[in-house]
Amino acid sequence: MPPQAPFWKTKTLEQMTHEEWESLCDGCGRCCLHKLRDEETEALVFTNVACRLLDTESGRCSDYVRRHRRVPDCVTLTPALVREIDWLPPSCAYRRLGEGKPLAWWHPLVSGDPNTVHTSGVSVSGRAVSERFAGILEEHIVAWPGRTPRTRRPDKEKDEC
User: Fold this and answer.
1) Is residue 81 situated within a structural domain?
2) Residue 101 Cα distances to 3, 25, 41, 54, 95, angstroms
3) Using an 8 Å Cβ cutoff, are 149 and 122 in contact?
4) Which residues contact 143 (CB under 8 A, 6 or more apart)?
5) Among 65, 30, 21, which residue's Cα sits nearest to residue 51?
6) Which residues contact 110 (CB under 8 A, 6 or more apart)?
7) Which of 77, 101, 138, 151 could pair with 120 as two cysteines, CB 3.0-4.6 Å apart?
Protein backbone atom coordinates (compact mmCIF):
# COMPACT_ATOMS: atom_id res chain seq x y z
CA MET A 1 0.00 0.00 0.00
CA PRO A 2 1.56 3.34 -1.05
CA PRO A 3 2.05 5.98 1.64
CA GLN A 4 -0.71 8.56 1.89
CA ALA A 5 0.11 12.02 0.54
CA PRO A 6 0.30 14.80 3.14
CA PHE A 7 -2.86 16.85 3.69
CA TRP A 8 -1.44 20.02 2.11
CA LYS A 9 -1.03 18.14 -1.17
CA THR A 10 -4.51 16.62 -1.21
CA LYS A 11 -6.77 19.27 0.34
CA THR A 12 -7.70 22.79 -0.64
CA LEU A 13 -7.28 25.52 1.95
CA GLU A 14 -11.05 25.39 2.50
CA GLN A 15 -11.02 21.62 3.18
CA MET A 16 -8.39 21.74 5.92
CA THR A 17 -9.25 21.17 9.55
CA HIS A 18 -8.47 23.88 12.07
CA GLU A 19 -5.39 21.94 13.22
CA GLU A 20 -4.15 21.46 9.66
CA TRP A 21 -4.71 25.15 8.89
CA GLU A 22 -2.81 26.27 11.98
CA SER A 23 0.09 23.91 11.20
CA LEU A 24 0.66 25.73 7.90
CA CYS A 25 2.15 28.67 9.79
CA ASP A 26 5.91 28.12 9.60
CA GLY A 27 6.71 30.62 12.36
CA CYS A 28 8.72 32.96 10.14
CA GLY A 29 7.05 36.06 11.62
CA ARG A 30 7.15 38.00 8.34
CA CYS A 31 3.40 38.60 8.30
CA CYS A 32 3.63 40.19 11.75
CA LEU A 33 5.94 42.94 10.53
CA HIS A 34 4.37 46.35 10.04
CA LYS A 35 3.64 47.42 6.50
CA LEU A 36 3.02 50.91 5.17
CA ARG A 37 0.75 51.78 2.27
CA ASP A 38 0.89 55.07 0.39
CA GLU A 39 -2.58 56.64 0.52
CA GLU A 40 -2.32 58.09 -2.98
CA THR A 41 -0.57 55.34 -4.93
CA GLU A 42 -1.55 52.32 -2.80
CA ALA A 43 2.12 51.25 -2.99
CA LEU A 44 3.07 48.85 -0.22
CA VAL A 45 6.37 48.85 1.65
CA PHE A 46 7.58 46.57 4.41
CA THR A 47 9.36 47.41 7.63
CA ASN A 48 11.46 45.32 9.97
CA VAL A 49 9.26 46.40 12.87
CA ALA A 50 7.37 43.57 14.52
CA CYS A 51 4.05 43.61 16.31
CA ARG A 52 4.61 43.99 20.03
CA LEU A 53 3.34 40.44 20.62
CA LEU A 54 5.78 38.80 18.21
CA ASP A 55 8.71 37.01 19.79
CA THR A 56 11.34 38.11 17.27
CA GLU A 57 13.56 35.10 18.00
CA SER A 58 10.98 32.30 17.77
CA GLY A 59 8.78 33.99 15.14
CA ARG A 60 5.69 33.13 17.18
CA CYS A 61 3.04 35.28 18.82
CA SER A 62 3.60 35.54 22.56
CA ASP A 63 -0.16 35.60 23.25
CA TYR A 64 -1.77 33.93 20.24
CA VAL A 65 -5.04 33.04 21.99
CA ARG A 66 -5.70 36.62 23.18
CA ARG A 67 -3.99 38.47 20.32
CA HIS A 68 -7.20 40.11 19.06
CA ARG A 69 -7.96 41.56 22.47
CA ARG A 70 -4.44 42.92 22.80
CA VAL A 71 -3.95 43.96 19.16
CA PRO A 72 -7.42 44.70 17.72
CA ASP A 73 -6.20 45.04 14.13
CA CYS A 74 -4.46 41.65 14.14
CA VAL A 75 -5.64 39.78 11.04
CA THR A 76 -7.09 36.29 11.20
CA LEU A 77 -6.25 34.56 7.95
CA THR A 78 -8.96 32.67 6.12
CA PRO A 79 -8.78 30.97 2.72
CA ALA A 80 -10.70 33.85 1.14
CA LEU A 81 -8.52 36.48 2.78
CA VAL A 82 -5.32 34.70 1.74
CA ARG A 83 -6.39 35.08 -1.88
CA GLU A 84 -7.40 38.72 -1.42
CA ILE A 85 -4.61 40.43 0.52
CA ASP A 86 -1.39 41.52 -1.14
CA TRP A 87 0.94 41.71 1.82
CA LEU A 88 1.61 38.09 2.69
CA PRO A 89 5.26 37.30 2.02
CA PRO A 90 5.96 35.15 -1.05
CA SER A 91 7.40 32.46 1.23
CA CYS A 92 4.16 32.15 3.24
CA ALA A 93 2.66 28.64 3.15
CA TYR A 94 -0.90 30.00 3.03
CA ARG A 95 -0.04 32.18 0.05
CA ARG A 96 2.00 29.47 -1.70
CA LEU A 97 -0.75 26.86 -1.40
CA GLY A 98 -3.38 29.43 -2.38
CA GLU A 99 -1.37 30.08 -5.55
CA GLY A 100 -1.03 26.34 -6.27
CA LYS A 101 2.66 26.21 -5.29
CA PRO A 102 4.27 23.57 -3.07
CA LEU A 103 5.57 24.17 0.42
CA ALA A 104 9.26 25.09 0.51
CA TRP A 105 11.87 22.55 1.64
CA TRP A 106 12.46 24.46 4.88
CA HIS A 107 8.82 24.46 5.97
CA PRO A 108 8.52 22.47 9.21
CA LEU A 109 5.83 20.21 7.71
CA VAL A 110 8.27 19.23 4.94
CA SER A 111 11.56 19.23 6.87
CA GLY A 112 10.14 17.74 10.06
CA ASP A 113 12.10 20.34 12.03
CA PRO A 114 10.54 23.57 13.35
CA ASN A 115 13.96 25.24 13.31
CA THR A 116 14.61 25.01 9.56
CA VAL A 117 12.60 28.21 9.04
CA HIS A 118 15.28 29.92 11.15
CA THR A 119 18.42 28.04 10.07
CA SER A 120 17.50 28.54 6.40
CA GLY A 121 17.38 32.32 6.89
CA VAL A 122 13.67 32.74 6.15
CA SER A 123 12.43 33.99 9.51
CA VAL A 124 12.60 37.41 11.16
CA SER A 125 14.93 36.01 13.80
CA GLY A 126 17.79 38.47 14.28
CA ARG A 127 16.38 40.91 11.70
CA ALA A 128 13.34 42.47 13.35
CA VAL A 129 12.84 45.00 16.10
CA SER A 130 9.78 45.16 18.35
CA GLU A 131 7.45 48.09 17.84
CA ARG A 132 8.04 48.89 21.51
CA PHE A 133 11.58 50.02 20.64
CA ALA A 134 11.37 51.01 16.98
CA GLY A 135 10.21 54.60 16.97
CA ILE A 136 9.21 56.00 13.57
CA LEU A 137 8.14 53.24 11.18
CA GLU A 138 9.32 55.13 8.10
CA GLU A 139 12.87 54.82 9.42
CA HIS A 140 12.63 51.03 9.28
CA ILE A 141 11.60 50.41 5.66
CA VAL A 142 13.21 47.26 4.24
CA ALA A 143 12.60 45.11 1.18
CA TRP A 144 13.41 41.58 2.40
CA PRO A 145 10.02 40.68 3.93
CA GLY A 146 8.32 41.09 0.54
CA ARG A 147 10.91 39.10 -1.40
CA THR A 148 11.33 35.39 -1.91
CA PRO A 149 14.13 34.55 0.48
CA ARG A 150 17.41 33.07 -0.65
CA THR A 151 17.66 30.12 1.65
CA ARG A 152 20.66 28.28 2.91
CA ARG A 153 20.59 24.59 3.64
CA PRO A 154 22.71 23.14 6.41
CA ASP A 155 25.88 21.51 5.05
CA LYS A 156 24.72 17.94 5.58
CA GLU A 157 21.58 18.58 3.52
CA LYS A 158 23.65 20.13 0.71
CA ASP A 159 25.58 16.88 0.42
CA GLU A 160 22.37 14.84 0.18
CA CYS A 161 20.82 16.87 -2.66
Assistant:
1) yes
2) 21, 15, 29, 27, 8
3) yes
4) 46
5) 30
6) 103, 104
7) 151
Domain that holds residue 46: 8-146
Q: CB neighbours (10 Å) of residue 50?
A: 24
Q: What is the pLDDT of residues 74-88, one digit of tens each?
A: 999 999 999 999 999
Whether residue 94 is contained in a domain is answered as yes
DSSP bridge partners of 50: 33, 130
The answer to whether residue 52 sits within a structural domain is: yes
As for how many domains the chain has, the answer is 1
- Does residue 158 form part of some domain? no
Do 21 and 93 touch, CB atoms closer than 8 A? no
What angle is formed at CA 20 by the lines to CA 15 and CA 26, rounded to 5 degrees?
125
Q: Is the pLDDT of residue 155 over 60?
A: no
CA dist 107 and 6 (Å) reads: 13
